[in-house]
Amino acid sequence: MKPLEIAKNVYWVGAIDWNIRDFHGYSTYQGTTYNAFLIKDQKTVLIDTVKRDFFSEWMEQIREVIDPKKIDWVISNHTEMDHSGSLPWLMHVIGSEKPVYCSKMGAQNLARHFSAGLNLRPVNEGEEMKLEQRTLTFLETRMLHWPDSMFTYLKEDQILFSSDAFGQHYAGMERFDDQIGEAIMPHAKKYFANILLLYAPLVLKLVEKVTRMGLKIRMICPDHGIMWRKDPGKIIQAYVEWSQQKPGKKALVIYDSMWHSTQTMAEAIVEALAQEGLDARPMHLRTIHRSDVMTEVLDAGAILVGSPTLNNGLFPNVADFLCYLKGLKPQNKIGAAFGSYGWSGEAVKLINQDLEEMKFRIVDPGLKIQYVPDPKGLEACHVLGKKVAQALAF
Ligand code: FEO
User: Fold this and answer.
1) How far, in Å, is the centroid of ligand 1 from the Cα of 109?
2) 244 Cα: distance to centroid of ligand 1 (angstroms)
3) Secondary-structure breakdown of the chain: helix, strand, coil percentages, each rounded to the nearest 5
4) Residue 94 pLDDT exceeds 90
5) Cβ atoms of 217 and 211 closer than 8 Å
6) From the alpha carbon of 81, which atom of ligand 1 is closest?
7) What kind of fold does domain 4-244 have according to CATH?
8) pTM strictly above 0.70
């Protein structure tokens, strides 16, 4: 991939990872990119690096813009190794004495990742760095999504280098929002739901802070996916809406099944929810990846979880999903549990415990049916669906 001049003397120098399909548990069906940026001025600055596997091809790309030895300063916005993995090798090429600017936590975390002696220079919130014609400013964005995360702002060009925030796991030939259009939004939504949802309150505070500072943003350059130049306000607004987590008129029936009984219950519940006017969807956990289910959770008002009882516990896929869901802490949901069982029937109780822990509003004690649902059992599924729909009345 060739470098790309995105503003005068500002270059995208990233790597496209076409083949990655699992990004630590997140399904990346369309790959991803690792974006890094080079700014040429009196001082030449590199913002972020790429995953280690792409180091050689990335260096070739940088060489098309400048002799890497002429890079004066490196900025590390985030320690996670998809952005810092090439750092020690880069420093070996450009000179290990050159400074690496990062947040205070970045300095601690980079030192814990790489034993090679990096010349780490922690920066403060709002600190400015003069390159000659241009000025860089740093914004601490702690826990968005690691303790070390920060943004770098290029004042004269009004470009925000936003690290993971506003990114998408998408590999394509497009580099900008205007080249792909609306098709990028589902990727941005999935990325938010699976990476940033837990930190939604901090996203809202950050947007408030940026608004208060009157920061003018002409372009947002995240470390993954396309850059937002046509309408950076669009992704900021989407982040505000997703962070608010207003419950939608949508109900998900998330389940797994052994001998189709829990599935039959799920389908009957979906039918009842739909009859009540909700956008209702069954989501079978052995068919749909947990990260895709999570994307749908983002704007759903009700989450019903179904599991058979296996060995006195939850079905493993359901336990996996609940563990993932709990970690991301979705807010403002109505919840309910259901499932078929043979003799002990603990699954409904265990699901309810998890829903309570997540502070879901539980509107029914839960429905369990022994072995196979009969017409009376199916009627009970309808009643449960209706009850949830009525609790979610708009
Ligand atoms: Fe893309 Fe948190 O790394």
Assistant:
1) 14
2) 23
3) 40, 25, 35
4) yes
5) no
6) 3
7) Metallo-beta-lactamase; Chain A (3.60.15)
8) yes
**H-helix segments, the chain:** 55-65, 81-84, 87-94, 104-113, 177-180, 185-191, 200-213, 232-244, 261-275, 290-297, 316-328, 347-357, 375-391
Per-residue pLDDT, 393: 83
Condensed to tens digits (0 to 9), the pLDDT of residues 362-388 reads 999 999 999 999 999 999 999 999 999
Beta-strand relationship, 150-154 and 45-47: unpaired
Closest C-alpha among 189, 187, 161 to residue 174: 187
If one counts every other C-beta atom within 10 angstroms of the C-beta of residue 237, the result is: 12
Whole-angstrom distance, CA of residue 162 vs CA of residue 78: 10
Give whole-number Cα distances, 306 to 101, 270, 297, 344, in Å: 49, 12, 15, 16
Q: At what angle do helices 290-297 and 316-328 cross, to 10 degrees?
A: 50
Atom from ligand 1 closest to the CA of residue 149: 2
Measured in whole angstroms, how far is the alpha carbon of residue 225 from the centre of its chain? 12
Q: Residue 353: which residues within 8 A CB-CB, separation 6 or more? A: none
Any residues with Cβ below 6 Å from ligand 1, and which? 78, 80, 82-83, 145-146, 164, 223-224
- Of 3.50.50.60, 3.40.50.360, 3.40.50.2000, 3.40.50.300, the CATH number of 251-391 is 3.40.50.360
* Residue numbers annotated as active site: 24, 78, 80, 82, 145, 164, 191, 224
Find the 95 Cα to ligand 1 centroid distance in Å.
25
Give the pair of three-digit tokens for residue 393.
Answer: 């009345």
